[in-house]
From TrEMBL, chains A, B:
Residue ranges of the region described as Disordered: 80-104
InterPro entries per the UniProt record, alphabetical: GMPP_N (IPR049577), ManC/GMP-like_b-helix (IPR054566), Mannose-6P_isomerase_type2 (IPR051161), NTP_transferase_dom (IPR005835), Nucleotide-diphossugar_trans (IPR029044)
Pfam families: ManC_GMP_beta-helix, NTP_transferase
UniProtKB keywords: Nucleotidyltransferase, Transferase
Domain MannoseP isomerase/GMP-like beta-helix: 357-402
Source organism (scientific name): Brachybacterium sacelli
Biased composition, class Low complexity, residue ranges: 80-94
Keyword Transferase on entry: yes
EC number from the UniProt entry: 2.7.7.13
Protein name: Mannose-1-phosphate guanylyltransferase
The organism's taxonomic lineage, starting at the top: Bacteria, Bacillati, Actinomycetota, Actinomycetes, Micrococcales
């Protein structure tokens, strides 16, 4: 079993422009219940991590979302999360989660590093695990097992990621290539073999490299090779290791978050944060740490075979709803399936009548929605915006959303 | 020039279920401005016929639509219709149109026959022309020329129809096959040749037969043959000829409408109407008169090459809007065409943003409508119903609408 206390970190940022108009700037994706489960993605993430945490999870979010995040953390859904048995952090005001406000978006590395710096100040050897606030994960037991293995690998000093077993040649995800003993850090071959054996003993593997989203042909080669996993953006690492490695890569960033953490709990905190934060390098953890550390043989991977999706666009969401029919499907009226309705998923209260249609409908109004002969559409019906989108073009939505401001429609974002 | 006075008759019935939810039971197709012209289909029909009429047109409509029809007839748009110069009918209360109320729908023959009976009572030799209230016609001059020719052929004693030059192998329309001298009524071959020459002299031709909507292969043969026209449901005939022929085919129906007409203008009218109307045979003029008279060599056709459409469903409407860009197109916001918008027609006030989309949008709310990558869709956005329909399945809409009642959604029809 792992020895070091485990503190989940949840960077909750990103509007999710490819899920507009469900997601808006003021009400981003992580605050949404996209699957009709009764809990938002953030609440599901907290519920998933609660039983694994030794300390209250830290949610890092934009200052404009602190109020909404606080409300969701304190809601009855979040109450259902088992409280971490040993949570004792004096700094938290809510035992279910600590919420850190980012004065402005600086990508994921500053957010995670700030949380790591707070943890390091309190318990330098603690292991943090960073998990996106807006992903879906299917199997809690498999997830818990993989996190436990990752904590043990992190205690060996590695930056550890979970590698999701790919089930199709997805082009919307990044990939991780498994390495071998020789790719690990170590001054001799024997050292490296020993390091690999130690990783294997806890259920982990060396990582050779991270790969950006591939095109279709490359994704098919990755799938065929059997040595590539999907990158779910999950990182498990000792707080001190993360900050020391970051100090070697981007010294100012590590120094900045340690300065802010040093002021936490004091009267100067807000001043230090406001002064320091805007000067931190805006960079994703992938580029700041994961890629350079993989090249240096300091990244390990725990193979994980639970269902996972970043629900990055409406095509992904439609797939999720189709594969997990317990979620939102079957709601709505209309002729029964055998009566030529087709394959229509309904999320929300919408009353949907359909003939010969394949579609996913997100109904946020009390309007009746009728579909005839449509194929592969996502339809989002809200009070001020109606979206009709071909799932196969789902990635293009962000371009349309980006154009709203210059059309004087910025209030709809 | 024609000699007999000409009285247009406009049966205004039929909800237009394949244009739901634009058309509703309480607000049927003929009351709608489907093309953004500023005038409803009924108003356009009246405006088209006004300059040709010698007496006020007669609109026959369901009792529940009399109020709405009256309002449209009297609206500023209808005021723009040139008043018939010689309109003198004492029975009319509005010089722009006489409105006859049907107590219940009995298909087109009773409606047209009742109007014919009223005309016959006032001017037995007058020629009536029956025109649907909800069709679109493109070229007023060509239309006027064809009607004038049809009036002259009607004065020869024929039931005359306009045969629209087909421009594609449409499967949604009925067809009319041209005949020759031998198909005309006449006791000798010389009679028949003479009759044909008389028809040709006024620009008309014999009709061999009426054909119901064909399948695609048959429609292609019709188009290739060059002797088939589209049946626009336009009939021009002397009032007395229509009723005498009807008396031979369905005596009770002719007697019934003559009884009602005899009571018109008296205190007994409503009683006679209420008592007689429900007993009239519910039948379309095509089956009651056009088909049997064609078989008897008593139907003539005036070839007409103006643009015509019955706008029977959303596919037809989309085609109309696309071919007549002056109508509703170009409204709405969104990126310009050159910016990847695609081909989006907008009718109504809807503000539409589109990327790579082919669609027709009918916006009756102030919501922003966003389209991404959709092809061949019609989208109707109203306060209580949203319809998304694949144009190639447009005919199936009536099946969905027919199912609303049993789903407890009859109030949406």
């Amino acid at each position: 079993m792992p020895q070091a206390p485990f503190v989940p970190v949840i960077p909750a940022g990103g509007a999710g422009a490819r899920l507009w108009p469900l997601s808006r700037r003021a009400h981003p994706k992580f605050l949404l219940d996209l699957t009709g489960s009764g809990a938002s993605l953030l609440q599901q993430t907290l519920a998933r991590l609660g039983p694994l945490a030794d300390r209250a999870p830290i949610v890092v979010t934009g200052v404009e979302h602190v109020e909404a995040v606080t409300a969701q953390v304190q809601s009855p859904v979040a109450d259902a999360v088992p409280a971490p048995g040993t949570a004792t952090s004096a700094a938290t005001t809510d035992p279910r989660a600590r919420i850190l406000a980012e004065p402005s978006p600086r990508s994921s590395m500053p957010a995670i590093a700030l949380a790591a710096a707070l943890v390091e100040r309190e318990e330098p050897d603690a292991v943090i695990g960073s998990f996106a606030a807006d992903h879906l994960i299917g199997d809690q037991d498999a997830f818990a097992g993989a996190v436990t293995a990752a904590r043990r690998a992190a205690e060996l000093g590695y930056l550890v990621t979970l590698g999701i077993e790919p089930t199709r040649p997805a082009t919307g995800f990044g990939y991780i290539e498994q390495g071998a003993a020789k790719t690990l850090a170590g001054s001799t071959a024997a050292d490296r073999r020993g390091a690999e054996a130690a990783l294997r003993a806890v259920g982990a593997r060396p990582v050779a490299r991270f790969v950006e989203k591939p095109d279709r042909a490359r994704a098919e080669r990755f799938l065929a090779a059997g040595t590539f996993s999907w990158n779910a953006g999950i990182f498990v690492v000792r707080a001190r290791v993360l900050l020391d490695e970051l100090a070697a890569q981007i010294p100012g960033l590590a120094r900045g978050v340690r300065d802010i953490a040093a002021a936490h709990g004091t009267a100067e905190y807000d001043d230090v944060l406001e002064r320091t934060w805007p000067r931190l390098t805006s960079i994703a953890i992938d580029h700041a740490l994961a890629e350079p550390l993989a090249a240096a043989g300091k990244v390990a991977l725990v193979p994980a075979d639970f269902a996972w999706d970043d629900v990055g666009d409406f095509a992904a969401l439609a797939r999720q709803l189709r594969e997990a029919p317990a979620a939102g499907t079957g709601a709505g009226g209309g002729p029964a399936a055998g009566d030529g309705r087709g394959d229509v998923q309904v999320l929300g209260a919408a009353d949907v009548g359909a003939l010969s249609s394949t579609a996913t409908v997100y109904g946020a109004t009390d309007r009746h929605i009728a579909l005839v002969g449509v194929e592969g559409l996502s339809i989002v019906d809200t009070e001020d915006v109606l979206l009709v989108l071909a799932d196969e073009r789902a990635q293009e939505l962000s371009r349309l959303v980006a154009g709203l401001d210059e059309q004087g429609l910025g209030h709809l974002r």
